[in-house]
């Protein structure tokens, strides 16, 4: 079990220029060591009568399968870093990208961050357990800087290659929490990301809408939770048709749904 201990204690520590986070880095290291010790103690004593523990040789670490992108809804990168290093907030992310493009790595990719909250995408209702959370410094209304976008693209490329994350599984917080979250905001360049292989985009060329086309079912097949239909439509438009803030699906938007449905299948 020594390998588990080493894996969970291999952490990202800021350089000496980040001394203001020395105490939280120490707390991180202590908690990671505690997880390693828990794994090292297995198998544990319990009330079940086993024939014995026979350790399999065929296993691996759980790996992330989604990337969820957020905006911080705060006024500075430092404010967000403080929020994510206060135990009382109970919120976190794996990465924070500041306006100047600098990237703060806050949690090992293989550990579970508290970034998605109550969320659902397709049949997955425990997004935190299968995703990496990336927060981009943005108050929710402003454009994202070129430096942020370039750093994000570099990071996404590394994550996609490292964990073989499927192209459709790069999504936004609003996608997985319709009606509850609206991040990243309407200024986020989803099409630019999709062109690089991080998420899907649409092509409505030659698409015709069948008379019996069901927009809500299309949203569900893409991954949206349609329990609150208007919220699902709003989240879809925030991602794919940001100029339209209504909850009415137009004929052209039905074509978009048909195109996306094929990509998310």
Task: Produce a short descriptive summary.
Helix content is 37%, strand content 8%. The chain has 265 residues and is α/β, with parallel strands linked by helices.
Description:
The chain has 265 residues and is an alpha/beta fold. It folds into three domains: 1-59, no CATH class; 66-189, Lysozyme-like, CATH 3.40.80.10; 215-264, no CATH class. It has nine helices and five strands; from the N terminus they run ααβαβββαβααααα. Helix 1 runs antiparallel to helix 2 (22-40) and helix 7 runs parallel beside helix 9. It is globular and about 60 Å long. The chain starts with a helix and ends with a helix.
What is the overall shape?
globular
Broad structural category: alpha/beta
CATH homologous superfamily of the largest domain - what is it? Peptidoglycan recognition protein-like
Mean pLDDT: 91
Runs in which pLDDT lies below 50 for 5 or more consecutive residues are 4-17
For this structure, the quaternary state is single chain
Q: Percentage of helical residues? A: 25-40%
What keyword list fits this structure?
5-stranded mixed sheet; Lysozyme-like; 3 domains; 9 helices; globular; alpha/beta; 265 residues
